[in-house]
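User: quick one
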Amino acid sequence: MKSCPSAEWKAWLAENGPRLLLFARGWAPSREDAQDLVQEAIVRLWNYQQDKGSAVPDLPLAFSTIRFCGLNHHRSESRRRKREESIIYLNDFTDVWLDPSVEDDEDAVRLRDAVQKLSSKLREVVTMKIWGGLTFAQISEALAISQNTAASRYRYALEQLAQDMRRLKEERHGIA
Amino acid sequence: MESPEDIEKALARLMPSAISEKGQRSMEDLIDSLAAGETVAVELPSVKKPSHLPWFGLGGIGAAAAAVVVAFSLPQGKSPAVVENAPVRENLPSKADVVLIGSSEFVEDAVPEDWMSETDGVPHQAWRVRVVDQERLRDVETGYEVLVSRPREEVRLMPVTSF
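Assistant: Done. Structure below.
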């Protein structure tokens, strides 16, 4: 007898929704659009999982599905439109990224801003690793890149963030 | 925090924000619809706002009632672009006594995309096509016929034969 999987999917969504939304933000100009992207991915994932007894999907598949949906959206838009969206995205970023408990942490805010400025290739690896909890093997599967490339992008992103933070700290001390 | 290890720890303290209450509810409704056995066809993301998804992509009689449905006596003429599927007579998995008497699909619009692909040495041009699936249904009790139209968009790769 086949059990109704909706409860499992809802629980899966409750657990993973924020990290999926965060990843989708890299492909959407606003939080609402990112939610739409997640929703769209859920429909696709549901169809994918039909052959697997409607089991909830694993995270690498979910990330790669969101990425696929995001790529398709971007592909149909002009470069000018992309630039406009990027500006909106950066301006809108502040409202949704941080947990309110760390809003007062100046370093956290600066770090958030630095993450925001990472290239999309670096940011998606960081997002999957830090907030998705994926291994480099899983990231490489989701992004169709080698594990070495995934690990290299991650290390490069951390180094770039560290460099940005050092520079910002020096500027701050310089001003003081 | 200047070392990459410090950065890693600091990043882990930043928590992603939650999906909004409205968004969460919408997605849960979507999951309920999917679990109820309603078919949701998504070929490629629509150009329209995906927020229409909960009802826009839903098939079946229940969704048809909520979707844009044009109920009228069907015209006899057919568009040359229409691909008429073989008429079928089957009871839909619905409690209503509605019979599917025919289905068809036609390409309403096709716009070339700005990217190409190559397969086995043959260049392919991407086209974003707008396809409309139509189903003709009859309510057994009243005799009314209903035409359900479900437009969708997808990208198709077409071989390039001339330059």
